[in-house]
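In full, the data:

***
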Amino acid sequence: MGTQSVSLELRGPIARLTLSRPDRENAIDATVVRDLRDACDAVTNDARVVLLTAQGHAFSRGWDWDALLGEMTDPAAALRSHGIPTDPFGCLGDLPQPVVCAINGDATGAGLELALACDVRIAAEGANFSVPEISLGLLPLAGGTQRLPRLIGRGKALEMILTGDPIDAQEALRIGLVSAVVLHDYLLSEAEAIASRIAARGPLAVRYAKEAITRGLEMPLEQALRFETDLTIILQTTEDRAEGVRAFLEKRKAEFKGR
């Protein structure tokens, strides 16, 4: 599957999503949001992991206001007028498969919010990260005020959002915004290595782990622990769970089927 703005390619157990507007620094307009949603819908159970990256030197410079505003002056109203939902990148979080994001360059505004909707982020050296909307008299419009503090904590998220100042890749690593920083030439190979390690694990266990963490964070601890136990009980009824036990006892690599 491929469009002018987003491509989807299945490579073994890894589905690769690629932002494909390098001439516009992968700026995000209504077409990108729609194509991204359609690509997420097209990811099948054959994929155990999704890898998101971008063409060109920037991951995404954020909203394409030239395309979105037209004669309008209200950015939020402009997004609504183009049918862009309140959570435009929620389709990534809704995928049952983990999503690894390879940030090849600057992730600005909505570009950073897109990366925040993924599960694991690694960055190329030289990448910068910012949510500069406050300097325009705006709030982040795609979940930045909610996902960023959940990831890096309230204090640092407030600093980034209230100042609008960028941080570099090493600072992003220090605060937990990304989990690794690598040389640009090695970014995709490292991202694929992480995705491959995840894909080699029990696919049902991986999906339940993502669900337990994602949904559990929204629950009180006692309720979240019960939810974790419920998922564990369900997992114990699967063929993959039995195969994992047999492989451990027989001292061999497990052959998971996703059943």
